Amino acid sequence: MKVLIATHNEHKKIEIKHFLDQIGGYEVVSLSDLGMRDEPEETGATFRENALIKANDAMHRSGLLTIADDSGLEIDAFNREPGVNSARYLGKDTPYQEKNEIILQRLQGVNERSARFVCAMAVVSPLYRPVVFEGRIEGVIGHRQQGSNGFGYDPIFYPLGQERSLAEYDLAEKNEVSHRAIALKLTLRYLEELKGRE
Question: Which residues are catalytic?
Answer without folding.
Answer: 70
